[in-house]
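Structure representation:
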Amino acid sequence: MHRHIPRSLRFRFFAALGGLLICAIVALAAISSSVIFPALQAEERQAVKRELDRVERSFQLEQQQLLAQVRDWAHWDDTYQFVQGDYPRYKDVNFSQEMFDDMRYQLMAFFNNAGEVYFLAGINPTTGNYQTCETPNDECAWMEPWVNRMQSAIDGDRADQSAIYADQEPVMVGSTPILRTDKSGSPAGWLFKTRALDDEWLSFMEEYTGLPINLSLTRQAASSSDALSFSGNIVHAERYLPIYSPLTPVSLGIGIELNRTSYLTSLTTFRYVLLWTAVLMILVIAVVLLLLEKIVLKPLRLLTQFTQQLDIHETDVHKLTRRSDEIGLLSRAFQKQFTFQQQLNDELLKMSTHDALTGLPNRRLFDQQLETAFSDTSTDSDSVAVMMLDIDHFKLYNDHYGHPEGDVCLQRIADAMYSLARTRNFFIARTGGEEFCALLPHISPDKARGIGEQLLAAIDGLQIPHSTSPVKPFVTISVGIAMQKDAKSQSPSAVVSCADQALYLAKEAGRHQVAFFSPQLASGLTPEHNAPQ
């Protein structure tokens, strides 16, 4: 005799939802353990790597600035004459403890053409006193290890670069041959500048990056992978940079500490979401069993389509929002919230792609437009021009008039540039503090130069006073232009690099002018050579 098995809709619905609930919980647990948790961990490691990248970029920027300062001194006729013995007052005029303190230099070393010491000046790391001498002996004996390493670099043809030495404490070193200002003739010697990576420098870097930083020396070659260790709420990360050491491999470890609160909070939140998801699924089963099809299930299906798919017929949407019960209230609330969310998304999109001060597009939107312009270029004749613009001596403007006036100056210049860009139908963005970039697709070099001259004239026309500028008594700009064909590789970043080099050429030529990228830049200069503001 067979027992009666209930076939009611409630039983079947309960059985189906119960089985679905079990499968969903198992699937959710499997996805969480195999996909979501590893993704959260990977995101945390990526965040740590981004912070290490940021610290390394700051470190590299310091090296580039030091090298630029060395070249500024070394490619100076006065320095050339001094090393040749024709300018005895050079060291009295140009050297002082205040200068070393302001520039954060540890040592400046001049060598003649034979690689022999000509003149040394520096701050004694033990006493903190400024010293000058002709040889690294006696009271200048602390200079000897660095001088030996510098002479080794000269012998090894490595005296035109930025490097890290670690014969004693680690120092950042910039070196270059001493040439005339016009680069003519053969070198008269070499100039080295060092900057100690001491506690004062670390404090400066920590303030600049907003991260606690520590340095360590390792007697082995620099590893290509970062070292990460996790301890409670803290993650310790270290990246290794190579040190110039001809005899034994040495690397400099740059370590940072990051708080894991965000990751741990996300992990806890997700676990709560998993728990409440399971609980909610059980409650839904209990609630669904108490509801009638005509009263709840059909309206809920329509509401689900409305909130998730937004592809239901307009008549059904109207019926939902016109209901006087809870479903109608939810429909109206969702419609209102969805409209509000769309407005927020539009505002967030604008905030993420535009500069808050000037209202111009920012670097992110510029990069997107640049990628699009390159992908739309169909022929060699259909070229893209990239223009980099920089306000001449803007730091002097800020120092003299103050940052509020500097902001007003930036806004006026941005308005003038945007007005011309709108008239001439090209794209312009603010990509740095006083740096702007323009994108001119489908344009010839002559027309690109013409627009550059118009931008120059537009800023001149503002007649913004700049009494401390050595260029003009008013604010001026310099412009560098590169065409798509100028780059060795047809990538957007390569053309931007060429434009940056063209801007450097404009600055080298005296600023307040338009310069095109030239092959001489590609072989002899790099973007790191930008002249000081």
